[in-house]
Design brief:
The protein is an alpha+beta fold. It has helices at 5-18, 49-55, 66-83, 114-120, 132-146, 175-179, 192-205, 236-240, 254-267, 298-302, 340-348, 364-377, 394-408; strands spanning 22-23, 35-38, 44-47, 87-88, 102-103, 109-110, 149-150, 161-164, 170-173, 209-210, 222-225, 231-234, 271-272, 286-287, 293-294, 318-324, 329-335, 353-358, 388-390. It has six domains: 5-62, no CATH class; 66-120, no CATH class; 132-179, no CATH class; 192-240, no CATH class; 254-302, no CATH class; 318-408, no CATH class. The strands form six sheets. It has a four-stranded antiparallel sheet with strand order 18-16-17-19. Helix 12 (364-377) packs antiparallel against helix 13 (394-408). The chain starts with a helix and ends with a helix. The relative contact order is 0.07.
Length: 409
């Protein structure tokens, strides 16, 4: 059950006072933000309320010595491995953040990190399909089955490598895509050269003209002149799907979208403070009739979603991290006000382990973007959608959360 900030603040003060201590902070800073206290022995320390609640201790200097704490962590780690049917073969405790050699129930020798095991429960990367050596072996096996050849050294599952298919086409491919059973993109007619020639053919046959001297990418906008002489920009993939060539010729032109957006904002009692039109899919700053500043997308407003997230109860002030222990996948995301509904939906999808939930966080969308950027820089690719990653990404996600959460609450 969720605990209100007032109840958490009161419980933290009572815990400190019961141990003979005193809280020095005058206001509640959040469950994950360190608070200054003086313990019963007079030590001045800082501790997170959530940590004090979970450990039952308020002062590290008064706690058991490091050997006692390490002994307890070592015992719990071994118990967890044995509960999974495995065996610890590391002779001594190396620390919560260090890898320890274990043998899983099917005989694989691997080296999980105790802190990750404590959070996720998994002990074997090979059984979960996350072991680098196992991934490389499966990738090479898939290449052999397709009659393809690897032309440069393998790096990891998310780094593209040069491959020559059975018909002699050389392309850069992600090992993960090969493991997924995808054939050669040239043989499938999906290479950039073939896509560019098809795009130019469709524009020419429609009576238009391509202005770009070279392809910019299948999902990028390209300058063209439509059959009626309008200079505009189109996306090749949408042209191939028959989505039209010209916004001005379309029943829903950019000018019409802007006029309709301004009309709907005015009818809702709001006003637009964005100095210029950015496009139907770009957020525009508006102020609603109650003075809330928001950034709706015109396309969403035209579809009836309203102009203000606060008035619509969409404040995006909760950040959460959940884990599917069966598939060894971690999911992070944001929601509004009460996380229970969103977490319940994820629970039905197998994500029953809630690693962390931070509520009342105005910077939740910024934290979500920071996590995505950090994972991208670490060359970690989603295993599903945009926010589903291998559980190996969990320590990095929590590092970003630890850096952002105290400052953003």
């Amino acid at each position: 059950m969720r605990t209100s900030p007032e109840a958490a603040w009161r419980a933290f003060r009572e815990q400190v006072e019961q141990d003979g201590g005193q809280v020095l902070e005058e206001i509640w800073l959040g469950a994950t933000t360190p608070h200054r206290i003086i313990c019963g022995q007079g030590h001045r320390v800082s501790i997170r309320p959530s940590q004090a609640h979970q450990s039952g201790r308020i002062c590290a200097k008064c706690s058991h010595d490091a050997r006692t704490e390490s002994s307890e962590a070592w015992r719990k780690f071994r118990e967890r491995v044995e509960a999974c049917g495995g065996q610890v073969i590391e002779p001594a405790w190396l620390g919560r953040a260090q890898r320890h050699r274990v043998r899983c129930q099917v005989g694989h020798e691997t080296a999980p990190i105790p802190s990750v095991v404590a959070r996720t429960g998994g002990i074997c990367r090979i059984c979960s399909g996350n072991d680098p050596e196992t991934s490389e072996a499966l990738f090479r096996k898939c290449l052999a089955e397709q009659g393809a050849e690897l032309l440069e050294p393998y790096v990891n599952s998310s780094t593209a490598v040069l491959i020559r298919c059975a018909h002699g086409h050389e392309t850069k491919r992600l090992p993960d895509s090969i493991r997924g059973g995808h054939d050669c993109i040239v043989c499938a007619g999906k290479d950039q050269g073939a896509a560019w020639r098809e795009f130019c053919r469709l524009i020419t046959e429609s009576g238009g003209r391509v202005l770009e001297p070279k392809p910019l990418g299948n999902g990028k906008q390209h300058r063209i002149v439509c059959p009626k002489g309008h200079e505009t920009k189109v996306i090749p993939s949408l042209v191939r799907l028959g989505k039209g060539l010209c916004g001005e010729c379309s029943p829903v032109s950019a000018a019409r979208s802007e006029r309709e957006f301004r009309r709907l904002v005015g009818e809702a009692g709001g006003r637009i403070i964005e100095p210029s039109w950015l496009g139907a899919l770009k957020p525009h700053r508006v102020v609603c009739r109650y003075g809330h500043e928001s950034t709706p997308r015109p396309n969403d407003v035209l579809q009836g979603h309203g102009i203000c997230r606060k008035c619509a109860n969409k404040t995006w002030d909760v950040f959460y991290v959940v884990v599917n222990e069966a598939s060894q996948v971690v999911k992070f995301g944001i929601t509004s006000n009460d996380a229970r509904v969103r977490l319940s939906r994820h629970r039905t999808d197998g994500f029953g382990t809630v690693v962390t939930t931070i509520e009342g966080m105005s910077a939740a969308p910024d934290l979500e973007r920071a996590v995505k950027s950090t994972l991208q820089l670490a060359r970690m690719a989603p295993v599903r959608g945009r926010e589903y990653y291998s559980v190996e990404a969990l320590p990095l996600i929590l590092d970003v959360v630890d850096q952002w959460a105290p400052a953003a609450l």
